[in-house]
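Morning run. Coffee first, then this:
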Amino acid sequence: MFATYTLLMATGVGFRLALAWGLRRRYDLRLTIQEVLAVVLLVLAGLPDWLQPIPFPLPFSFTLGAVLPDLLMRRV
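And here it is:
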């Protein structure tokens, strides 16, 4: 269980880094998500299936890995 959670989180971080690098290199765009949206995505990913208002197909650990840079670093 711990290994699956860690691997999914690492996959989310890797996906986010690859997407940000590709967007920056190809289109000169910076990938940022507001902190409020990041928290909403984490809450939506953490809800049980029967309680979700809309279907959210990504697991919590992948979502956490994908939005973690926005929660840890503050952009100016």
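The two ends are 37 Å apart (CA to CA). Good start to the day.
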